[in-house]
Amino acid sequence: MTKADRILYLITALLLPMMFYFSWTGDKEADYADVYVDNKVVRHVSLSGQQEIDVAGALGHSVLQIDHGRIRFNTSPCKAKVCIHRGWLQRGGEFHACLPNRVSIALRSNANEYDSINF
Amino acid sequence: MTSVPMMKPLMLFLGLLVLTACQPAPKEHHQTLLSFGTLVEITFWEDDKAKVDTALANIERDLKYMHEAWHAWQPGPLGRTNMLLETTEEFSANPSVIGLIQKSQALAIRSGHLFNPAVGQLIKLWGYHSDDAPQGPPPAQSRIKQLLQQNPRMDDISIKGVRMQSRNAAVKLDMGAVAKGYALDQLMAMLQGMGIENAIINAGGDLKAMGRHGDRPWRVGIRHPRDKSGILAGIEVKDGESVFTSGDYERFYEYKGRRYHHIIDPRSGYPAEGTQSVTVIHTDAATADAAATALFIAGPSNWQEIAAAMGIKYVMLVDAQGELHLTPAMQSRLQFKEAPKQIHLSEQS
Questions:
Q1: What is the pLDDT of residues B143-197, one digit of tens each?
Q2: Which of A36, A80, B207, B305 has the fewest C-beta atoms under 10 angstroms from its C-beta?
Q3: What domains sit in chain B, N to C, each tagged with a CATH number?
Q4: Residues of chain A in Cβ contact (below 8 Å) with chain B
Q5: CA angle, B107 then B109 then B113, to 5°
Q6: Do residues B63 and B33 make contact, with C-beta atoms less than 8 angstroms apart?
Q7: Helical residues (DSSP H) of chain B, grouped into ranges
Q8: Which of A79, A95, A97 sits opposite B132 (nearest CB)?
Q9: Cβ pair A54, A63 in contact under 8 A
Q10: Domains of chain A in sequence order
Q11: Can you tell me the distance from the alpha carbon of B169 to that of B85, in angstroms, rounded to the nearest whole number?
Q12: What pLDDT, in 10s, does the model give residues B251-299?
């Protein structure tokens, strides 16, 4: 084994645990969200950047706001506005719905810290 | 030539790099369903996509059936049962409600009637028999007192086969604190019958798991009762376990600056005080569901006695000051995101 071999082995040994950590573990914010209307996926959206998404539901249009890794119901045709009061969602495994408008969102991450959230 | 020997470690490095960068195999499947009056999320770890699709269709169908059968204020089998219980005459009950009512009777007795689904009239009086959030004002004290004096309890109901009768006309069943758990038990049994071994069903925040997520256990985050975005603690859920939380933040309204939540103490007729949330783990989801409510009502001073009577080993109660009350068994399983400011450990092992 040459000196160069040993250096490469050393770099590999150091880098692999780091890459594993950043790929598969850790407190992950969500990467994307599935948007459902009436139990069917209508959009699969990245949570990076900023945008608004208009979703036609049973009562009318829900507007979802995306802001650098988080998402919320911004406007809704429902009466109680429970969906809006929930505020931002940002963690993989979280989900929320506007029950009257039959619109729901489920946040996903490529490496969820949690498979499901209890509340 | 050093380039050839260097190729081996280089190839090893690149090969491992590629492996590390790989995404997990597409064994994980998700679906959310608006059903049972809430949002239900189902997660599978399963190779057979066709089996997953069949399972999802079965879950959707069964949830719809159970929701209609056990609905507290819409016409259906439970609504009919309530009408006939009020007559205090004997009648033949719809079989779809009998198992749930019998299970609830046993749980109510073990909880010292702190879990009391017979107080449906009281829940309705508080405005929680509506799809819309109640606005207040809270009900008149005289009306609450009148209902409490009638003292409806689950042991007022007698069941022989399909024949059912109440000796108390004030009994009106509201299965809101047990139906979700009972439904999850039924759904998981159905999935097992299909040969599905690894799944989580989360119905509006309460869940039951079976099997594992591949080569590791399922991991569940328990939300902080006062921070919608925060996780209080994480937990690894074992095969067959259910995790249920009752909290004062789930359904409530504010009237003249005071919060009135939906967990009504059947002894006082008012929302239970002293607790923000109770989390329970148990293999039987119906038991976990009822116990989370009963222990919330029991509060920081009395929860241990009720937990012991109901056979609950894993309990976390967050009191009104945000301090934690834990069984030692629960403490050993929780992975806190931040060190709690105060932990009160019970003597229960």
A1: 999 999 999 999 999 999 999 999 999 999 999 999 999 999 999 999 999 999 9
A2: B305
A3: 77-176 (1.10.3980.10), 217-345 (3.10.520.10)
A4: 1-2, 4-5, 8-9, 11-12, 16, 19-20, 23, 34, 36, 38-39, 79-80, 82, 86-91, 93, 95-97, 99-100, 102, 104, 106, 108, 110, 112-119
A5: 95
A6: yes
A7: 3-21, 49-70, 77-87, 95-110, 120-125, 141-150, 179-193, 285-310, 328-331
A8: A79
A9: yes
A10: 32-112 (2.60.320.10)
A11: 7
A12: 889 999 998 999 999 999 999 999 999 999 999 999 999 999 999 999 9
CA separation, residue B199 to residues A39, B4, B5, B45, B242 (Å) = 19, 49, 48, 6, 12
The rounded distance, in Å, linking the Cα atoms of B349 and B326 is 10
Q: Is the ipTM of this complex over 0.85?
A: yes
Number of Cβ atoms within 10 Å of the Cβ of B32:
22
Q: What are phi and psi of B341, to 5 degrees?
A: -70, -30
Structural tokens at position A8: 């490469």
| List of chain B residues with pLDDT < 70 | 1-26, 348-349
**Looking at this protein, which amino acid is placed at residue B89?**
E
How far does the CA of residue A111 sit from the closest CA of chain B (Å)?
9
